[in-house]
Design brief:
The complex is a heterodimer of chains A (177) and B (250).
Chain A lengths: L3 H10 L4 H12 L2 H18 L8 H19 L21 H6 L3 H11 L2 H12 L4 H8 L3 H20 L11
Chain B lengths: L7 H7 L5 H11 L3 H19 L8 H10 L15 H22 L8 H14 L8 E2 L3 H8 L19 E9 L2 E10 L2 E9 L5 E8 L2 E8 L2 E7 L3 H12 L2
Antiparallel strand pairs in B: 1-2, 2-3, 3-4, 4-7, 5-6, 6-7
Helix pairs in contact in B: 5-6
The chains are: A mainly alpha (177), B alpha+beta (250).
């Protein structure tokens, strides 16, 4: 248990980043219901570890716990197509089928589908960059990944999302034609 | 994609992660490389589609309540005003002001390079500005609209410039009060984060920037040509540094 002062500090520092925690978990887990449970678990972990927080980037500290909780959860609840999720080479190509993309005709649907079809390591990096506005350094801290890998993963993920957006009939970027 | 710079460098440039020298070098390269120009345009198109698609998924109220309850707290759970959703922003700002006020009482004894009381006032003013209807008195992305708006309202003429092309579009301006005097406040947006730049005249000589953070808000202050500048935001410190160098170089 935290002392009342520490409890107050936790609430002031950590709780404001609940949206960031939820956004990351929702995209990593590809859904809302599981994300809520995992965020709750991550917040409790953060609460337990809080006395070990030595100051600094509090959002990065919390998101690190959130993503680790997500990955632990995914490993425990692994099924079917999730098993080789960590192998970026296997999942390097965009996977939504033309049929699936045709159903999701609007760009939100397309982007959601394209994001969810990315390998989780790419997905977390692009979500942290584009939705959460994290710097490369923050992403490197949160994901325990070298900055060089952050950059190469980001560039690959962007390419895949661009392909998904320009549509199945037009796999190449318009500028490359 | 043919140009071999179109890999990491173009992404680093797009994300403002290059140092000033590499960025300048890349800009020279851009003048003659259409591959890289197109790559940047594609990235910008992707970013704006992602922004328009509203993919950000904030925590639902039910989760917020559950977590507050599990922590044994009877206080509502605050949110960070990082996105312009005015409804909860007001609540968040109010909570942050209270949290900040209590922090400030304990922090006044601390010594720092920059006047801590002044820094505290600046962060206060930033939080105040995030309440609905308080951010801008003149809403315009056009520097030629914002600058004349200040005429006659202040006893000085603040430098006003839009940096939309550099990733810091001007949103507008307002008059604020810092340290008992009227100051100009320029509002820029960096992705989803608002940046307030407070400007007032000073008799003291130029000073290089110094920075600090309070309660998750970064501030950076400097003096140039008779003006005191202080920028404050919840954006990353690197973003504030970029804006500082843009403002200081003009």
């Amino acid at each position: 248990m935290l002392s009342p002062q520490e409890q107050a500090r936790f609430e002031t520092l950590i709780l404001p980043h609940l949206d960031a925690a939820h956004n990351l978990a929702r995209w990593l887990l590809r859904g809302g219901a599981d994300a809520e449970d995992v965020v709750q678990e991550a917040m409790l972990r953060a609460y337990r570890f809080f006395h070990g927080f030595r100051g600094g980037d509090v959002r990065a500290w919390l998101l690190q716990i959130v993503r680790n909780t997500c990955f632990t959860w995914m490993q425990k609840n692994r099924h079917g197509k999730e098993t080789d999720e960590f192998d970026e080479e296997v999942h390097g190509a965009p996977s939504p089928t033309p049929e699936a993309l045709a159903i999701a005709a609007d760009s939100r649907g397309r982007l959601t589908q394209a994001l969810e079809s990315l390998p989780s390591r790419s997905r977390e990096i692009i979500v942290l960059r584009e939705l959460e506005g994290c710097s490369y350094k923050e992403i490197a801290i949160i994901t325990s990944t070298p900055i060089g890998t952050v950059m190469s993963t980001l560039s690959r993920a962007r390419r895949q999302l661009q392909l998904a957006l320009t549509g199945p009939a037009n796999k190449e970027s318009i500028h490359d034609l | 994609m043919i140009c071999n710079r179109a890999g990491a460098v173009v992404h680093g440039y797009f994300d403002n992660e290059l140092d000033a020298v590499s960025a300048a070098e890349f800009e020279r390269h851009l003048e003659q490389c259409s591959d890289c120009v197109y790559a940047l345009e594609d990235m910008e198109a992707l970013r704006s589609s992602m922004g328009l698609a509203q993919l950000y998924e904030p925590a639902p109220a039910s989760l917020r309540k559950k977590i507050a309850a599990s922590l044994g707290s009877d206080r509502p759970v605050a949110t960070v005003p990082s996105r312009p959703v005015w409804g909860w922003l007001a609540v968040a700002a109010a909570i942050l002001v209270i949290a900040y006020a209590s922090w400030r009482v304990t922090s006044l004894g601390r010594s720092g390079g920059y006047d801590t009381v002044l820094a505290a006032e600046i962060v206060d003013a930033h939080l105040r500005s995030l309440q609905p209807g308080h951010l801008t008195d003149v809403i315009s992305t056009d520097q030629h609209t914002v600058k004349p708006w200040f005429d006659g309202k202040l006893d000085f003429s603040p430098p006003v410039q839009d940096f939309g092309d550099q990733g810091f579009p001007l949103q507008g301006g307002r008059i604020d009060v810092v340290h008992g005097r009227s100051v100009a406040a320029l509002v820029y947006v960096r992705r989803n984060h608002f940046v307030n730049v407070f400007i007032w005249p000073t008799d003291e000589k130029d000073r290089a920037s110094s920075s600090g953070s309070q309660q998750g808000y970064q501030w950076m202050e400097w003096r140039k040509e008779g003006m005191e500048f202080c920028a404050v935001s919840d954006a990353a410190p690197s973003a504030l540094e970029q804006l500082q160098s843009l403002l200081a170089s003009n």
